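Re-run with default settings, no changes from the original entry. Doing this only to confirm the output is reproducible before filing.
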Amino acid sequence: MSTAPTVYDVAERSGVSIATVSRVYRNPDSVRAQTRERVLASARELGYVPSGNARGLASRSTGVLGLCFPDYSDPDAESEAETGAGDEADDDAAMLYSDQIIRGMERAARRHGYALLIAASLKGGPESLVAKVAGRVDGFAVLARTVPTEDLDVISRRQPVVMLAGPRESDDLDHLDHIEAANTDGQRELTRHLIEDHGLRRLAYIGAQESPDVDARFRGYAEACRAAGVPVSGEPDLRVAIMTQAEGARAADTLLDRPGERPEALLFANDQMAVGALHTLERRGVRVPEDIAVTGFDGIALSRLVRPALTTVRQPMRRMGEEAVELLVRRLTGQQDKQPVSMMLPVTVARRESCGCARGASRA
């Protein structure tokens, strides 16, 4: 096995001092952009991953697994859970999609004797995020489109990496293990339910920019519409930058104010936006579901605590985190063959009051 490249190799190739290479990873803003890019390019070419501590250098084992994901927190969701949940509030009320994945990973990591290191911010750039995690862990999971493909390719030569959520984004990453939920199937079934069981035909889909999960969900929506002869365009009716409650509230205002017939149903790509829309509709005197049905996706706890309770697609977020750890541990202990694993986790449609269903009805 070839010797792993060191900081000395990177410094020599990029023509800078070892101290400069170190600053690029510890404090990238302190290094001129041109120099920083030269160092990072040299590191990628060599397959260099910065090490986090002396124990890792000596033993090549840290006893730590990592998770990288973009930190898209939603303060409105936390506030909703604290003040609007009433007697049914529980400890999970404010937990969002990534929180549930973390909980699943923590539980499974503890079971196998590992700690979990989380990098939940893109501040400082993706390279900075990778540097914080890759050199300090034995293997890590990363949510789709969080880290550039070329950086993941370099890291995966040295340690196991599991991609979470979204379809595979690049042929260059086909060798990585991959876990996703059945986004397309879930949205197709939910849309079919609105059309066939409730007779709704004027539908509006609200998604996000640059999201592989949302793209997969929109495909399911479009397939169900076409199968039922319901007009559908090639793009969501509205896209937002970040899928928060505030954006969902604004989206509902925008769609209500558009000229022409009002939609009979608003299908949101996640629960947070749908909850925000429920507040806007209540403020404007629009009844849900009598005037407009509203649906979400994810199945966060808040979806069952709002009124009316939100019809949504529940995906197994904690299980996704647990399966990621199980895959990493099998890779680290040599129990998994070299072929990449692709895992599709099933979802469930939770039919509740916001679409006009009786409380608590569900369908796999």
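The radius of gyration is 23 Å. Residues 212-228 form the longest helix (17 residues).
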